[in-house]
Amino acid sequence: MQVTAQEDASQGKEFLAFKLGAEEYGIDILKVQEIRGYEAVTRIANAPEFIKGVINLRGIIIPVVDMRIKFKLGEPVYDQFTVVIILNINGRVVGMVVDSVSDVTTLTPEQIKPAPDMGTAFSSEYMIGLGTIDERMLILVDIYRLMASPEMGLSETLAAGAA
Questions:
Q1: Structure pTM?
Q2: 158 CB contacts (<8 Å, ≥6 apart)?
Q3: Does a structural domain hold residue 6?
Q4: Single GO cellular component annotation (predicted)?
């Protein structure tokens, strides 16, 4: 039996769940290229503090963004759980440092609630909504909008990939 895209959409969308501090976030699994252990990065002079630097990923130099610094979630700690999620956004590759990755979760449209605007460091314009699974709540991030936002300083890079 074949499932059409229409039917598949009603069954849910998959999100990669990751932690930043005490909170759990989710991003569209289709934007994730791979998950790597944290490794030293090469710092770039005059880059914003949240851009940790760049890494060489099989011959491609990619920028690495530390999401804890970006969202002002305290001093980042790099340990055995720290990972870099390699994202592929419109053909451009970007690394995102997070505290840990937990699982891939499928959420149905009924499980995704609109996000309230609370004036936090994490603007609701970058949120798809809040995913609820029993007692667990995921802050669902629109990773394309976040990474392409002007304050990330990656918009030229991502726009070039979209062209």
A1: 0.83
A2: 89, 90, 92, 94, 144, 147, 148
A3: no
A4: cytosol
